[in-house]
Amino acid sequence: MNCAQARLLIGAAPRGADAALAAHLESCAECRALRAEMLRLEGDIERALQQPPQLARRRRGYASGWQPWAMAASVLLACAAVLGVWLLRPSDSLAHDLVKHVKAEPESWLAAQQVSADGIEAALKNSGVAIDLTSDKVTYAQSCWFHGHYVPHLVVQTAQGPATVLLLRHEQVKSRRSFHESGMTGVIVPAANGAIAVLAHGGDVDTLASAMQQDVRWLPDSN
């Protein structure tokens, strides 16, 4: 289970006992924090329903029907708080998962030796992707398991330092997304048959992303 799936379950049923969710929460501090916040706010809603505020009547002739309105207002505020927390948290779970994946392979940034053409081909094998990129720019090339598929994970040397590129045939994005997380700057751009993600520790990721859109060739689906 990834963060996107976990957040959907947490949003639908914060008190749910799904085994896969429980396993994910053991290793993901951010999703644990989200669930704790959702549980706290759910409790606020329950208390608002059970104990509406007891406001003193200060004016003669004050409408006797204030209690239902006060209760409704309390519930509305609590729901708005829940929705606010849900929306203000990192909503782009794909970006979050990309950062998490790259952080799990810190050696990729340190690689200095050029990857051979055969090495690049091996990373692209069975991914449904080909790339027009000379091997002297690539210092890391692996086929990595990501969101249920093997995807090419490359590190490309640029004038501003190394940048990570992941070619995501099975991800669809409608428009460019930029993000900043854990000291990384990244962008996800749509492509013909998937998406391309570029991440770097600062620097210009857009130029490389645009170049990759031109260099990557999406092969016909073999299925």
CATH class of the largest domain: Alpha Beta
The total of helices stands at 8
- CATH fold-level topology of the largest domain: Protein Transport Mog1p, Chain A
Major sheet description: 6 strands, antiparallel
Strand arrangement, largest sheet?
A: 2-3-4-7-6-5
SS-based class: alpha+beta
Q: What string, H for helix and E for strand, traces the elements in order?
A: HHHHHHHEEEEEEEHE
Q: What characteristics describe this protein?
A:
single chain; 223 residues; alpha+beta; Protein Transport Mog1p, Chain A; six-stranded antiparallel sheet; 24% strand
Give structural notes.
By secondary structure, the protein is an alpha+beta fold. The chain has two domains: about 5-90, no CATH class; about 95-220, 3-Layer(aba) Sandwich (Protein Transport Mog1p, Chain A). The protein has helices at about 5-10, 20-25, 30-50, 65-90, 95-105, 105-110, 115-125, 205-215; strands spanning about 130, 140-145, 150-160, 160-170, 175-180, 185-190, 195-200, 215-220. It contains eight helices and eight strands, in the order H-H-H-H-H-H-H-E-E-E-E-E-E-E-H-E. The longest helix is centred in the middle third of the chain and has 23 residues, at about 65-90. The chain has a six-stranded antiparallel beta sheet, sandwiched between helices. Strands 1-8 form a two-stranded antiparallel ribbon.
